């Protein structure tokens, strides 16, 4: 593998054993060993993560005055997916893990961290541990992550039959990127939330996101969450219509909401939906 060439290994001067005489350059192989261990025990559907340090030696940076200049240590987060995402469900056909599932996990992590996505570049990855991969860098070439399908040659070495999807996040670089983010916290309300359900008859072209956006525009203070819990298309509905069953969660941070206050908010939301989408209550 060119990505993790032997000349870039950091060697241990006094190793405990011959197989522990170098520091790891990647988290990948520890995860593959765990996958193989589990697969041999009939546990093939796995989602795993690991935080850990990775080490890299660059002879070109060797300096007699700065002894450690040639050595690099970065903190990484590794994610592994293999086997089926869904299996044995009465409500859903078996479904294999995919790179799209892995990408969703990675994007969720970045969003929760407040990672600024503007200025980042997504391109085909170059790490040769992957058969296919995507890499995220900035315009200066700083590397943040790479994710994709691990090469079959590598998984075959450990007798892993299923495809393995792996994401390598350079946590050190990500933390540097977000260090200027201002994080604010809000005290959890001591007062209970109120829930209301509506069955809305709308045109088939209407998406739930439109309903959600209009609802929050109607009330920015008390409306906390809008959830779609059922969609019906079929008999007893007008031509070209469908029914959305939507839950609205409201909460006042300063007091318990009464029925009059709740009804007033819901009337505003309903009026906005009727005006902008032509929605009707069933």
TrEMBL record:
One of its GO terms (biological process) is translation. Its cofactor is Mg(2+). PROSITE patterns: FDX_ACB. Gene3D superfamilies: Bira Bifunctional Protein, Domain 2 (3.30.930.10), Ferrodoxin-fold anticodon-binding domain (3.30.70.380). Keywords: Aminoacyl-tRNA synthetase, ATP-binding, Cytoplasm, Ligase, Magnesium, Metal-binding, Nucleotide-binding, Protein biosynthesis, RNA-binding, tRNA-binding. It is found in: Cytoplasm. Coiled coil: none annotated. It holds the Pfam family FDX-ACB. One of its GO terms (molecular function) is tRNA binding. Residues 189-282 form the FDX-ACB domain. SUPFAM superfamilies: Anticodon-binding domain of PheRS, Class II aaRS and biotin synthetases. InterPro entries: aa-tRNA-synth_II/BPL/LPL, Fdx_antiC-bd, Fdx_antiC-bd_sf, PheRS_beta_core. One of its GO terms (cellular component) is cytoplasm. Its EC number is 6.1.1.20. This is Phenylalanyl-tRNA synthetase, beta subunit. It comes from gut metagenome.
């Amino acid at each position: 593998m060119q990505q993790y060439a032997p000349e870039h290994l950091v060697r241990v001067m006094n190793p405990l054993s011959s197989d522990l005489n170098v520091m790891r350059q990647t988290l990948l192989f520890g995860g593959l060993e765990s996958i193989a261990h589990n697969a041999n025990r009939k546990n093939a559907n796995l989602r795993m993560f690991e935080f850990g340090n990775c080490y890299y030696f660059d002879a070109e940076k060797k300096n007699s005055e700065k002894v450690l200049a040639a050595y690099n240590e970065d903190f990484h987060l590794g994610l592994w997916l293999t086997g089926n995402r869904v299996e044995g469900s009465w409500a859903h056909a078996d479904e294999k893990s995919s790179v799209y599932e892995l990408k969703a996990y990675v994007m969720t992590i970045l969003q929760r961290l407040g990672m600024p996505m503007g200025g980042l570049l997504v391109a085909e990855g170059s790490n040769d541990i992957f058969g296919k991969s995507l890499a995220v860098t900035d315009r200066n070439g700083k590397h943040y992550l790479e994710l994709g399908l691990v090469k079959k040659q590598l998984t075959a070495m450990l007798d892993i039959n299923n495809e393995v999807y792996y994401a390598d996040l350079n946590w050190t670089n990500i933390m540097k990127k977000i260090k200027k983010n201002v994080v604010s916290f809000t005290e959890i309300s001591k007062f209970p939330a109120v829930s209301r359900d509506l069955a809305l008859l709308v045109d088939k072209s209407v998406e739930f996101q439109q309903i959600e956006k209009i609802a929050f525009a109607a009330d920015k203070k008390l409306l906390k969450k809008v959830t779609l819990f059922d969609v019906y298309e079929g008999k007893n509905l007008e031509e070209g219509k469908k029914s959305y069953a939507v839950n609205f969660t409201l909460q006042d941070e300063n007091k318990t909401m009464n029925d009059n206050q709740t009804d007033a908010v819901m009337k505003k939301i309903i009026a906005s939906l009727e005006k902008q989408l032509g929605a009707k209550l069933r």
